[in-house]
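To the structural biology subgroup,

Please find below the input and predicted structure for protein O-GlcNAc transferase, which we are adding to the shared reference set this quarter. The sequence is reproduced verbatim from the submission form. If anyone notices a discrepancy with their own records, reply to this email rather than editing the shared folder directly, so we keep one authoritative version.
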Amino acid sequence: MVLLYSHAHSSAPSYPALAGYILIRLSWPSSPRLRYAPLPYPLLLILLNHLRSFHVSVHFGSAPDPAQPAFPAPAPSPAMPPSTSMRARHGHPPGPISLPPLAPPPLPPIPPAAVGPHSLFSTSLARDAMMAYAYYLYDSPGPGRTPLGLTPVPIVHSPPEDESPDIIYRNRLLPLLLALREIHPNHIPILLLLACTYYALGDLETSLAISYQILAINANYVEAMSNIGTTMKALGRIDKAYEWWWKALKIRPTYWDALDNVLGMTFTLAHDTPDDARRVAYYRQALAVCQYVQQRVLDANGRLLITLQPNEIPRLQRTVFTSGTLYATLGPDNLEHAILEYTRAIEVVIRPPMPLAEGEQYTFRDMLLAACAAGHIMCTDSNQSGVPEISGIFQGDFTARLGDPTVDFLYVVRASGEQLLHALLHAGGGVLPTPLLLPEQVSRLPELLFSRSNGAFPAVCTRGSTCEVKRPADNVRKQTNGMTSTILLTLAKRFQDNVLGGMALPGTNGTLRISTSVIILLYYLALAWTPAPSTYNNLGIVLSGITDGRMGADGELLNGLHLARTYYTAGLQMDPKHPHLLTNLGSLLKDQDVGRPWDAVEYYKRATRVNPNLPEAVCGLVNSLSSICDWRGRGAVAYEVGVDDAGFIISPGPHPQTGWITNMVNVTDTQIAQGYMASVGAPALQTALHECLRALATAYGRQLTATEVARWQARFERLARSGQDRAERRINEAGFLIRFIDWVQPRMQRQWYVRAYGKTLEVDKAVATSEANFHGIFLKPTLPKTLQPPPVPSVLPFHTFTYPLTPRVTRLIPHRSALRISYSAFAQPWLPKHVYRPPRPPIGGKINLGYISNDVNRDCLRSNHPLSHLMQSVFGMHDRNRFNVYLYTTSPWDGTAYRPRIASTVENCVDVSSWSLNTIIDHIMQHEIHIRELEVINLGGYTKGARNDVFAARPCPIQMQLMGYAGTLGAGWCDYLVCDPIACPLDTSATERWRAQTAVPTGSGRPEDEVPLDMDADIDPETDSDEWVYCEKFMYMPVHHKQSFRGDENLTVEERAQVAADTLWLDEERRRADTRKQLFPDLPQDVIIFANFNQVSPTPIACCCTHKVTHAHIIGSGQLYKNADVLISDSRLCTSPSQIDPVRALTSASSLPRPGGVGIFLVWLRILRKVPRSILWLLRFPGAGEEHLLRTAKMWAGDEVAARIRFTDVAKKDWHIFRARVADLFLDTAECNAHTIAADVLWTAASMVNATGFGDQMTVHSAEEYENRAVELAKSVRYVPHHEPSGAVLPRGEGELLSLRRNIYLNRDQMPLFDTERWTRNLEKGLLEAWRRWVEGTMYELSDEWKACEGDEKKSGCIWIRDDEPVEVTQVA
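Predicted structure (tokenized):
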């Protein structure tokens, strides 16, 4: 294609001062480029007058203004094709552009030298080209009309066939250029295009020769230098290419094409090299180039030193942004430099064009404060609560004038000095307050912040003669908007990764720190200038996690969840098939409030239709369908009862049946395998080995033996040899390095303690700290800079309880999450290089004990959390002569009475819900809180809102998990799990499995190249073994601990002891009869009520299907995500939250799963069929599960049985406990046993196993026993009339089941299950023992101290707590 331009030109004085430009499209199939080639205008006229038959597409237009190019600059590429004009420095057009046609100027006289039979243009080429132009003139509209009825083109004429670019260049373009060079041998533009043509034809040497000829004419012609560099690169002479590009940059630092070439080549070399050191060197080289350019264009404060054209501003901005990215790539130590560069890149575009007044030197801080203030002003404008603190800062009616073109808001913000910042920080409690903006309000931010330029960034605007601001060309504006949004999003991501670190923003003197509100503001700004579905998605993710709220214009509450949904929806309007938006909106609906999984299902299905392998969508769909008991299409894993697409049962078999549950299993297996792909490289491993050996010697307090050195060297050698088969060999290189730091830190802390205080359990008075003496000794190993964040599976650790996953996968999912948490903690720039100082010995043996919990008020039932009930008395029952108690709450107070009630029982209750990780740890250190000295107890685990990052940073030497999360954390930063041997069998712990392995004869060991990647006795979680689950050691409690209330009888323990047993039981039967009538008024008294209060979701157990059951619990009740009793199977652990499990097979104690095994829901239906006068009482939790359960019951058992399933709504806590007495028999789920509700129903005398004294009567060993025992107990019930003094008749029950109920009810004050004070005393025994083992060093297997000891810890790493008080349970006939 040929584009003709008219343009004044002074290089041909012998002709009229006119010249033309031919814009040649270099038609490379893969990457078309456009270049300008100036040509003397008279020659063009001669050429066009002789056109004959060659058809050429011709357009007219003005020549490109060097200051305003017609085409945007391209993105950086490894190497640009050779430049053909000085205007190349202003950017290259990405493709052909059609310009408005203009009438050509009149033809001047033809120079005599150019005509005649032997003229330069007497060739057929010139003839054909000029004839095509003649046709164009004939057909172009002129003053009159084109003559009609004539035939200007011969009938026999046919257009030429399409020819290849090579033929066009060689046979048409090249002859023209050679002819032109004969006329103008030293005309550089002709030579420049000629060199490019030879390059395109593959004649690189000739291209080089012509470029050198240009430099002979003009030694500083940078376009020729850049072309030489590109040609050198094509010749494989990389060093020479770099030299020529660098030479061009030194002459003209704003030659952006040369910069792109240098950076592109350097990045390619860095990407291709396997040598980590060389890769880092390439990145440093690229950074030096960027810095060179910046130093010659910007001063130290980011002000322009030279005048740039508007289209050059985004190129400069991209250069500064690239510097920041390179800093970030070079490792976490450079993160602050990276953030500084990112903010400077923003400042490049927010400052007005030169000349610049001092008050216009806007900074990133000014933009952020302006956005925050404008956001709150918009909220106030909508009759909503804004920030009153800022109202007095702006004068007069400024709020009403916001957005006025005469108002420069950034100027006003900058002029306010520190006033606005302090006012906003005061309103936000030390951080910027979050303006909760709707999408339409976000879109107004550009015009509010930059009203004078109508929302365009000032730097790309121009000043008029009266200093008015003129908007840039659309392509420049769009390019700047896109680049700025990219930088803002990058900052937001960096801040998200470090938000818990509390890093101060550049230019704020430490007063403005990174917070969630800052991240939200960055997303607002990015979205305001460049709306994109992915930005809506990321903003929604952040908003979904905040608790702030305000009233909307319609009077409805706008909080983080509502806004997140709004932004997800807005993003889907741009891209209805965006899989991540669909998935996240589904997750939001599933998790908000009490959850709406029934609404989430459709979004997950839409996401999986777009991307069937999107892990989050697959896992979310499984969880949502399970939550509402819609089992259709579930499929089945091997040896499991399944459900087909229609909802009918699939019998167990050896092969899986495809469905959504098998899709989830496959996705999880794939993600786990992908986690093995990361590698840090051999040099980094060698460095890590040296640091490892140094840290080990420090932790042991002595030099390592040759055997120890060889053992650790062998582990690192195995890592180095793993190659590409890491997945097959189960070698997680990144995981090993992170695990080692987790493993060695507490051992180094203990060695510090011993060197400072000796093996001292307690002291009589305070001793001086040793902080200043050992900082340089107890240095932690560092993670390699090349280590990337470990990937995390999409299945949440808590959900591993509920899916048919093998024990190994059940272990690896939380382990991979733990690795990611540790990585994030270790990457914090403020983290000290040494381990945290160990505690001083407790004075008088009084231990300061800390609890960290997110559940000190909230509840999935909207009122209060079960953990609050379970633990509310424990905190206050600790022996204050031996313990000081500190409670850290990571969730804000919800306004209920539970938080104040609990806080009143402890010495220190600290709300850290808004604190950064750095602030929490600083508080611990600065206040000498003994939580750091001794034990810190995690009550959250992997539940929502848990702050495991506090534990990963290791501020204290002993850390443990209690109550909130029933599974393994899979983390090296959790030492103990408080549990019981029923829930957690001894051999399911890694250290106990290690003891079993060491007893195996040495002849059965592994080959040398398969040396295990264990940390002494801590087995590598990545191992193939399905024999264990827990990475923690166990602290075994003698009985379970529960909380209950006494509101049913209104009697104290002492008062109750004085009442006769018959009277107590008679009163209980009266309460039960009255409550039964209230709940089920249509139900006759002799109808047996079976009950289960679990969430009605079908969640398979977290174990493989080849496990055999050694015992199962027939009776009980549970609540969502709480686990007390578990199913032990084949020496492996199977745990799950207490939920209805409709399809998992129960098996006998003496065999593997059988094809005849039936699911628990099937068992319940069979029980109902065998007990005709019975009902099954379930909760609407969630309500959408009711219709699916009833439909399934009809399909599996018929209408009559299905009609006897009754649902009631979820109730408040007190009424929930009180009404539980109505149930005759609670049917527990085998794999998902009860927890909080179990204690509640036992308190009301419903039967259940364990800690009651009557377990033998309530324990079964197979599905058949489960079913038969339930039927047997139900049929034992009979009622006899009892005549009350009032004349009323009270049916009183008799039989084995009623006898059980009576015994449990009358003995509840003697049962350890309900003795909280006793439970607390036992817990304290375990805490003191854990402290002793740590101080003496016997806590760590294979340590010198452990080898020398003879205590219980030599036999088992677990702590067995013995209950010394007798249990007095009375059998009542």
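Summary notes: The mean pLDDT is 79. Residues 474-498 form the longest helix (25 residues).

Regards,
Lab coordination
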